[in-house]
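Morning run. Coffee first, then this:
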Amino acid sequence: MATRGVLYPYRHLAWAARPAPSVVSRRTITYTRSLRAQEEGNTGENDKQESNSRPSALSSIKNFFFGKGKSAAKPKITRTPTAPPPREGSLSSDSIFAEDEATPKLTTKGRTPVRRQAQPGAEEPAAERLEERNREYMSLALDPRPKARIRWERKMVIRAIRKRGRLTKQELIMRTERESLVKSHWFKTSVKKLGPLARQIAGKNIDEAILQMRFSKKKVAKDVMEHLKHAKNVAIVRHGMGLGRVTGEANTEPITITLKSGERKVITDPTSIYIAQAWVNRGPYDVDYDHRARGRINILRPPYTSLSVLLKEEKTRIREWREREEKAQRQRASKVWTQLPDRKITAQNQYYSW
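And here it is:
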């Protein structure tokens, strides 16, 4: 017991006198860019600290028996390449937006691109040599059926020769008068509800029809008004209708005509747009559900319809009025009785017929 008591305190002394092991800080597997840069910047300082640190007892015993080996090279952390700074784009040398000045123009951001001057012996780029394009490849899209085109051209030439260059009445009307047919999208309404609105705007001026739909109490009148505005814009932009104030045709004297309904109308601008025809198209049926009592469900089939309007100019209305007047005048002249009608004498004979 005595010896054990004597040896017991020396064990604590030996445990306290042993050299302290070097503490290695714990690091995570993934590093952020800022930590990597920080570690790279402090690489030299860490090496100095580790070299000055006191070696452990285990390492000293290993070096005593096996000799001091070569220190393994520590892995170095390489910095990931960063993206280059963004560069602003510029126009190419052959751009149509580049200035035609001989010298580049100085700006705050640099020099503007200038069109390159063609050298006398240099070859022109392929984009400028339009005459050297392959006509065979272009004909695949421009003229896919050459035989049918030749037959059509021959047919048109023969028709023109037979008619001696004279146009039919329909062809003359299509060349001298403008019209625009516009169909709307599907409205969520029925033909029974949209039909009265179509009959209401038919025959009216486009601006007057828009005003009628604006103050209408019908629910679908709002959709009809938007469609009329779109149809008016299409007629003006695509077909050039309603431009009499620009071309000077609206400065003519006002003319009074009589419509088919017997109403008199004064026309001041022959190019103003009116709705010649308006009709309703039946569309598809949707599926809806009506939840009722006791878990019952009624299947509803709400209909969809569209509105088509045919827009024309007042020139057409004036022409139709003149044609009706001429036809009525011919009919009245044919019914006038004359005692000796002015007829040609035919089948004359030198002998009496009685």
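Strands lie at 179-183, 255-258, 264-267, 273-285, 288-291, 297-300, 303-313. Good start to the day.
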